[in-house]
Design goal:
- The chain has 7 helices and 21 strands.
- With about 400 residues, the protein is α+β, with helices and mostly antiparallel strands.
- Strand 10 (about 115), helix 1 (about 120-125) and strand 11 form a beta-alpha-beta unit.
- Helix 1 packs parallel to helix 2 (about 145-155), helix 5 (about 230-240) packs across helix 6 and helix 5 packs across helix 7 (about 375-390).
- The N and C termini lie far apart (about 50 Å).
Length: about 400
């Protein structure tokens, strides 16, 4: 009898995933932890590894099809021909260590198909570029949008010899597929269920800027780039410890608030495919340098479509930042089923009043969007001021944490 590997849980609330690419075909021999497929959920693009060593006998889904969680994904014959029951690789428990996924991607163009994200393929179709003929420059031999645009500009790969352009007065129809469709569904679900309200306040980040610049010089020797986000995560953890009602999810069906006594913080990140939310596990147990290193890894893997199943889902609270494009402030949408999300915005020199004098300080705004069914306005304000207290006095970040 065949061994059936079922599509595992890939995150809280995820029930299906689109098959973006198979790394194996029937007849291939695989080893444990070898990547089998790249799939896209409503949270991110992740790689599914093999749980066993054996020979692939059947793929249950085609590329582009939507597979269901806990339904057969791959059929294989184990080494030695032993009979096994269908296997489900469950999502890791919050406190358990997660084994790493071993990257073993095929060479560019393997199996006759270029490595490229759905958005990149769509751009190639729009520009009339044969993506199979585009030289890849992205991570692991992936074709990027810049590669496609460069190929279209060169004119050598376009099917019609020139890139098509939209005619004035016409309508361009763009199908909502893949991650973009899942983002739309999840944002609609969040706004349809949670009673959103947003609290905004100003932060004097002058001392934080000084400390960040000082630490950045030391971290550079370790090959780590320090940004403001690790400090924000530290401040968020400190505030969540004081206000655990915000480190929670809301179970509507049971009428229960589930407070989490660990701190897995989601980071909303922009990619070519759309918004993803990779998760920094155990943020409370990490140093500033460790947080910076993990944030950089998650960001790079998000953009390259290399996130692992354990990198997404089951976050307890989310932070979103647009960095230099952060504007003055925004009203983020809650990452369902969480009950709050913290928005961080651009730091800029600003005239402020201090001791009766107008001085220039480094100022930014923070915005906290909460679910009013769970979080009261006074609690949201108090939480935000606790975050601000730690950002304005960054030495506090090191009193009770790593």
């Amino acid at each position: 009898m065949a061994y059936q590997f079922l599509l595992p849980d890939i995150g809280e609330g995820v029930v299906e995933a689109e098959i973006l690419k198979w790394f194996v075909k029937p007849g291939d021999s695989v080893v444990e932890d070898q990547p089998l497929a790249e799939v896209m959920t409503d949270k991110a693009t992740v790689t599914i590894p093999s749980p066993k060593r054996g020979r692939v006998t059947r793929l249950h889904w085609k590329e582009g099809e939507v597979a269901r969680v806990h339904h057969p994904l791959v059929e294989m014959e184990l080494e030695g021909g032993s009979v096994q029951a269908p296997a489900v690789v469950a999502a890791a428990a919050p406190a358990a260590p997660v084994p790493p996924v071993v990257e073993a991607r095929p060479a560019p163009g393997a199996a006759g198909r270029a490595l490229a994200a759905p958005a990149v393929r769509a751009l190639a179709r729009e520009l009339g570029v044969d993506i199979q003929k585009v030289a890849p420059t992205g991570p692991s031999g992936r074709v990027t949008k810049e590669d496609v645009r460069g190929s279209a500009g060169a004119g050598g790969s376009a099917a019609s010899g020139a890139a098509p352009s939209a005619l004035p007065g016409t309508v361009e129809v763009v199908p909502v597929r893949g991650l973009r469709r899942r983002i739309a569904e999840k944002m609609a679900q969040s706004t349809r269920t949670a009673a959103h309200f947003t609290f905004v306040e100003q932060v004097d980040a002058t001392d934080l800027v000084v400390l960040k610049d000082r630490m950045a010089k030391g971290a550079e020797a370790e090959g780590v780039k320090i940004t403001f986000l690790p400090f924000v995560l530290k401040a968020a953890v400190a505030a969540l410890r004081k206000f655990p009602q915000l480190n929670a999810s809301f179970d509507e069906a049971r009428g229960e608030i589930h407070r989490k006594h660990w701190y897995d913080l989601g980071i909303a990140a922009a990619t070519d495919q759309g918004l993803t939310v990779p998760v920094v596990r155990r943020a409370d147990q990490r140093s500033i340098v460790d947080l910076a290193r993990e944030i950089a890894r998650l960001g790079a893997d998000s953009r390259a479509g290399k996130l692992r199943p354990e990198d997404v889902g089951n976050s307890t609270f989310t932070v979103t930042s647009l960095g230099a494009l952060g504007g003055m402030f925004a009203t983020p949408v809650i990452n369902f089923p969480e009950v709050a999300i913290l928005g961080i915005h651009r730091i800029r020199p600003t005239p402020v009043a201090r001791d009766g004098q107008v001085v220039i300080r480094d100022v930014m705004y923070v915005s906290l969007t909460s679910d009013h069914r769970v979080v009261d306005g006074t609690e949201a304000a108090a939480f935000t001021y606790e975050v601000i207290r730690h950002l304005e006095n960054p030495a506090l970040l090191f009193l009770h944490t790593v």
